[in-house]
Design goal:
This protein is mainly alpha-helical. Helix content is about 80%, strand content about 0%.
């Protein structure tokens, strides 16, 4: 192997070690409950246990992954078809997206989350943004 290949492998290994170290530090020093995010050691000990149901858990995970993927494709294609057939639907969705983006920016920048502020942002977005 060349030195460049060795360097890439070393960086990949170091990145994984850093990720596990950050995970451990987050859980330990952040006092995160184990049911929210277990430590790396608890995860490895559970996976190495003799009574861990690898097959059934793998099937559940695979069904969630593929189910989510197919649902995303179905919804995405449906929305794309509706937008391509109706400029009104596209304009309404774009206005909604602009309002949501503006509301998110206002909330992040000011911390204001009241309904009055939402109404003001919505009114100003709808009246000032082109459709």
């Amino acid at each position: 192997m060349t030195s460049d290949t060795m360097r890439r492998y070393a960086l990949a290994i170091l990145a994984h070690i850093a990720l596990i170290a950050a995970w451990y530090a987050f859980v330990t020093f952040g006092h995160v409950p184990a049911f929210v995010m277990p430590s790396p050691f608890a995860t490895v000990s559970t996976l190495a246990g003799t009574n861990y149901a690898w097959v059934s858990n793998s099937l559940v995970t695979a069904s969630e992954i593929f189910g989510g993927y197919f649902l995303a494709v179905l919804v995405g294609v449906t929305i794309a078809i509706v937008f391509s057939w109706s400029s009104t639907a596209e304009a309404a969705a774009m206005t909604g997206a602009e309002v949501a983006a503006t509301w998110a920016a206002v909330t992040l920048l000011t911390g204001v989350t009241s309904l009055t502020a939402l109404a003001a942002v919505t009114a100003s977005s709808v009246t000032t943004l082109p459709v």
